[in-house]
Amino acid sequence: MTDDKLTGLRKSIDKLDSEILKLISDRAKCAQEVAQVKQQEGRDAVYYRPEREAQVLRRVMERNDGPLGDEEMARLFREIMSACLALEEPVKVAFLGPGGTFTQQAAIKHFGHSAVCVPMSAIDEVFREVTAGAVNYGVVPVENSTEGVVSHTLDSFMDSNLKICGEVVLRIHQHLLVSENTRRDHITRIYSHAQSLAQCRKWLDAHWPMAERVAVNSNAEAARRIKGEWNSAAIAGDMAAEIYGLEKIAEKIEDQPDNSTRFLIIGNQEVQISGADKTSIVVSMRNQPGALHSILEVFQVHNIDLTRIETRPSRSGTWNYVFFIDFSGHIDDPVIRIVLERLGERANDLRVLGSYPKGVL
């Protein structure tokens, strides 16, 4: 009786698989037809629409009845959309490399595995590649829940006209990794990115207080280095461990269990309203008392939710500062237009970095 029931269930699964396969193929054919329509627009055709993908993923999560979780279902649809988009026009994405960084993981989470990911050795190189048109988009880290803002990314925006097209929030799990050549009882050096070393400071103090902590350009670079050294270990994530064939001797060693990093998608396009959006701006104020209050008052009067504000030294003079501000809403919202107009009257300079969908996954 049990065998008969299993046989019946397997036949049902086979039938469903055939239906799913046909539906995915039908969707892919629609994507090809979309590409043909867009090709008529010539060189100005835009194949990837962040607001459209955000709307689709939100709708998937809203309509999901289980038993798969909302995020798991959305990830499946992300990969379907990624593969279909590649039929239209493969998306090229620059990220802070080498391969195996959390930034690459964020790029794949946002664009799917069908995107062509191109590693860059520095954040400003990511900006340059997107500006030059060598890639369609870039992915850069902007803030960590434990260690705060990534200053290099904010500074790069001050020298760039690129737009923010999206955001990704990634849970960061750090592991202590060794290679097949590592003599575990003789580890005297631990490599990682400076942010990761800071995120694991207490754990390192407790378990490897005598080991030298060496900051390198990325976690993936740390993973690559220990392949040729017998007395070193690396702190990095799952992707680096897999790519470089390393073993985890301690898992999830970050000091804060909810450790997360926010990444920004940068590009050249303006993103339309998705229905749940953020806007990022940079404001330069005159050096006078109450400058910050003057900014915040505008948001308070119009009941706009501020999600982040950071201060950076201005390039225009000593002891002058600029404010990087994120808030809920889109520049095409009427109330946001009013807010920006009021800020422009008070600010020495105001630049909109972009309006984009709030992170879905």
From TrEMBL:
**InterPro entries linked to this entry:** ACT-like_dom_sf, ACT_dom, Chor_mutase/pphenate_deHydtase, Chorismate_II_sf, CM_dom_sf, CM_II_prokaryot, G/b/e-P-prot_chorismate_mutase, Preph_deHydtase
E.C. no: 4.2.1.51, 5.4.99.5
GO MF, one term, reads:
prephenate dehydratase activity
Keywords annotated in UniProt: Amino-acid biosynthesis, Aromatic amino acid biosynthesis, Cytoplasm, Isomerase, Lyase, Multifunctional enzyme, Phenylalanine biosynthesis
- List, alphabetically, the SMART domains matched: CM_2
Q: Which Pfam families match?
A: ACT (PF01842), CM_2 (PF01817), PDT (PF00800)
Query: Is Lyase there in the keyword field?
Result: yes
Cross-referenced Gene3D superfamilies: 3.30.70.260, Chorismate mutase, Periplasmic binding protein-like II
**Protein localization:** Cytoplasm
CDD domains per the UniProt record, alphabetical: ACT_CM-PDT, PBP2_PDT_1
| Residue ranges annotated for the Prephenate dehydratase domain, each copy included | 92-268
Q: Which residues form the ACT domain?
A: 280-357
Pathways per UniProt: Amino-acid biosynthesis; L-phenylalanine biosynthesis; phenylpyruvate from prephenate: step 1/1; Metabolic intermediate biosynthesis; prephenate biosynthesis; prephenate from chorismate: step 1/1
Q: Which NCBIfam families match?
A: CM_P2 (TIGR01807), PRK11898.1 (NF008865)
- This chain's protein is named Bifunctional chorismate mutase/prephenate dehydratase
